[in-house]
Amino acid sequence: MLRDLVQKAVYLGVGIASYAAETANSNIKELGNHAQKLVDTLVERGK
Description:
Layout: H1 2-46
C-alpha cells in the first residue's frame, strides 16, 4: 500500500515535470515567433 502510494507520487512528479517542460518549450517557441514578427514589422517601418 505504501509502496503504491510512493510509486504514484513519483509518477505524478515525473508527469508534472514533463508537462512543465513541454509548456515552457511551447512558450519559448511562441515568444520567438512574436519576436520575429516584431523584427519584421520594425524593418518594414525602417524602409
